[in-house]
């Protein structure tokens, strides 16, 4: 699981095309204004584990190759609060910022989501109350049998 530690490491990997989205990696150009979108991404990733990085945009081919630093102010608290309030039995996450050398108030925000022993995690609110997982580069609504398999794995 790729977890960059420095701006240089992240920018080099992104601009050289060494990273690609998939079941265990999701790049986000910006932080969504919709808390449920953030919660859905984390819930989906928690089933098998992975990394979400905010501040990486996609090129014309849909590949995550464009550094796009985001504001880091309050982001740790925001994402932690969303996980606690929008997911049933909140999964453990390890969020951390990677500030830019030019302006430490902006940069990249990494959310490491280890595989959760309590998966699946129900998305709560706004008539959601659903379970999500990853398929390729996307979040998908889990079927009843997929939810049952994850409950069985808890045992």
List keywords for this structure.
single chain, alpha+beta, globular, 155 residues, two-stranded antiparallel sheet, 4 helices
Number of H- or I-type helical stretches: 4
- How many distinct beta strands? 9
* Unreliable segments of 5+ consecutive residues: none
Which class do the helix and strand fractions yield? Answer: alpha+beta
CA-atom Rg in angstroms: 15 Å
Which term fits the overall shape?
Answer: globular
Please state roughly what percent of the residues sit in beta strands, choosing from under 5%, 5-15%, 15-25%, 25-35%, 35-45% or over 45%.
25-35%
Taking the alpha carbons of the first and last residues, their distance comes to: 25 Å
Mind summarizing the main beta sheet? 5 strands, mixed
Helicity, as a percent range: 25-40%
| Whole-number mean pLDDT | 96
Order of helices and strands, N to C?
A: HEHEEEEHEEEEH
Task: Report a brief summary of the structure.
By secondary structure, the chain is α+β, with helices and mostly antiparallel strands. The chain has four helices and nine strands.
């Amino acid at each position: 699981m790729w977890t960059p530690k420095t701006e240089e490491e992240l920018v080099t990997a992104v601009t050289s095309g060494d990273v690609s989205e998939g079941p265990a990696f999701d790049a986000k150009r910006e932080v969504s204004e919709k808390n449920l979108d953030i919660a859905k991404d984390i819930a989906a990733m928690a089933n098998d584990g992975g990394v979400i990085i905010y501040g990486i945009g996609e090129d014309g081919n849909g590949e995550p190759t464009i550094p796009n630093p985001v504001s880091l102010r309050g982001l740790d608290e925001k994402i932690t609060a969303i996980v606690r309030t929008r997911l049933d039995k909140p999964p453990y996450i390890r969020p951390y910022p990677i500030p830019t050398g030019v302006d430490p108030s902006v940069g990249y925000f990494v959310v490491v989501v280890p595989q959760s022993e309590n998966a699946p995690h129900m998305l709560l609110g706004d008539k959601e109350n659903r379970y999500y997982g990853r398929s390729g580069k996307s979040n998908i609504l889990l079927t009843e049998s997929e939810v049952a398999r994850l409950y069985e794995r808890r045992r």
